[in-house]
Amino acid sequence: MTSHPAAPLMRTTPEGLLWEPSERWVRGRTGDVTVVDSRHPVLVWEPHLPVPQYAFPRADVRTDLLRPARKPPEGRRHTGSTVFYDLEAGGGTRPNAAWTFPADDLAGHIAFAWFPRTDTGLDHWYEEEEEIFVHPRDPHKRVDAMASSRHVRVEIGGTVVADTRAPALLFETSLPTRYYLPPEDVRLDLLEATAHSTRCPYKGIARYWSRRGGAGVPPDLAWSYPDPLPAVLVIRNRIAFFDEVVDITVDGERQERPVTPFSAGLTV
């Protein structure tokens, strides 16, 4: 089977970077200042990072806002020897907000820190007209959400906190299936809303709940997306639980608690 001639090809540099061109229109802003406006970005994967980042042709960057970094970070924050820049925009300076990669393939490109790196990254990033949170989406990762009629029961410490036959299942590459349950099938009287919030480039902004009087269980063990991104609209306002710390039974079969990158943060 041959590749489509227009399909982007992932390439490897001698420094161990993976990269490929992207056809998305990407913009980055600090306050009212557009710092990046590119229709020719490239996605770059560093060996020690699980998610990609964008690098942009210099012509698409407001290089007049960049200054050689006063205090470049110590140690090898990025692959190989890099040159860092401070960003002066919006009346302030953001140290080490941008850098170049040492690879010849990426010469002439500049990468930027994405939030939530406080006082470093740009304030807002957009792919086309959609705001993107945390990090660029990985084109080699799938996130599929679909309605289901499976019977899902959730228990915390032996107490049933949810029971439904109308879940929405979310399948995400390299993560366990998440079960998003109708709020009317969740014992909300056993949960209490918290101020915790997270952002996901694939799903949107999440709000959280803890187990009321939840001694012995981690806080913020359930979440919901009140206004999810269009691709996963079926999960709107539904409530999911971390499989890592609760007991979930699907169609009568108890699921094993998975170990995921979230496990370390789910502590009492």
Task: Tell me what you see in this structure.
The protein is mainly beta and 268 residues long. It has strands at residues 11-12, 18-21, 26-30, 33-38, 42-45, 53-57, 66-68, 83-89, 92-100, 109-112, 124-127, 130-132, 143-147, 152-156, 159-164, 168-172, 178-180, 191-200, 204-211, 222-224, 239-241, 247-250, 253-254. The strands form five sheets. Strands 1-2-5-6-10-9-8-7 form an eight-stranded antiparallel beta sheet, with no helix packed on it.
Could you give a short description of this structure?
By secondary structure, the chain is mainly beta.
Task: Write out key terms for the chains shown.
single chain; 268 residues; mainly beta; Metal Binding Protein, Guanine Nucleotide Exchange Factor, Chain A; eight-stranded antiparallel sheet; 23 strands; 0% helix; 41% strand; elongated
Write the layout of secondary structure elements.
Blueprint: E1 11-12, E2 18-21, E3 26-30, E4 33-38, E5 42-45, E6 53-57, E7 66-68, E8 83-89, E9 92-100, E10 109-112, E11 124-127, E12 130-132, E13 143-147, E14 152-156, E15 159-164, E16 168-172, E17 178-180, E18 191-200, E19 204-211, E20 222-224, E21 239-241, E22 247-250, E23 253-254
Antiparallel strand pairs: 1-2, 2-5, 3-4, 3-11, 5-6, 6-10, 7-8, 8-9, 9-10, 11-12, 13-16, 14-15, 14-22, 16-17, 18-19, 19-20, 20-21, 22-23
